[in-house]
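Hi support team,

I submitted a single chain yesterday and got back a structure, but I'm not sure I'm reading the token output correctly. Could someone confirm the output below corresponds to the sequence I sent? I've pasted both exactly as they appear in my results page.

Thanks,
R.
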Amino acid sequence: MHDEIQNGSVHIALDQGIATLSFAHPAQNALPGRLLSALSDAVEALGRDTAVQVIILKSEGARAFCAGASFGELSALEDFGQSLEFFSGFARVINAMRKCPKFIIGRVHGKAVGGGVGLAAATDYCLASADAAIKLSELAVGFGPFVVGPAIERKIGTSAMSQLAIAASTWKSARWAMEKGLYADVYDTIPELDAAVGTLARQLSTSNPEAMQALKSVCWQGTEDWDALLAARAVISARLALSPFTKAAIAAFKSGQKY
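Hi R., thanks for writing in. Yes, this is the structure output for that exact sequence:
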């Protein structure tokens, strides 16, 4: 399956029980609303597909893994309903990944910002390159990582999550992210990363599907309220994204000013 989504794309390739779900967008793999919707639909479809044993989530290109929320779409938000729909897209993707009965392996080949960090955190096992630094930049432009926060906090803890969220202009290295638990391992080169992702995917593709589903359920225990929690967090972000402060901050960011 290959869909063009608002100048971006979502692609699924299936090989011997391993489904590779990849996304791309010309703005450093940013996530506009339609691309978020396509990702959540794809995860749900793969979860239902009996031919799929394990899923690899990746992005295209050689630079950023994901630049997070689309600034073009953020700057165009005009009313609360529109804003809520946009931020609810992140909630739907994370909840789809959480509820998917198949293990999702994250392959993070470059920098991840905001929602991109949330995607990495919502995978079940994430591997990264040494270039995969992370940053939660939301506070710097007037809101906060409210929707993706629970997934990130679940992986790295409250203290590390707070450091990322408060120091919103500061990059943390891939090694830091590994030490905190976001990444299971970090590789110096892309070929080494791809080899490790492939090895794990092949191992899981021959494992007992029932056992993997039960194990995933155990690993995500305690998140049963996330449908309501992330919906409530989306309301916070949707309101703040329409504030004069945020509108001015996003405009400054887009014009190249420091913020």
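A quick pointer for reading it: The two ends are 39 Å apart (CA to CA). Let us know if anything else looks off.

Best,
Support desk
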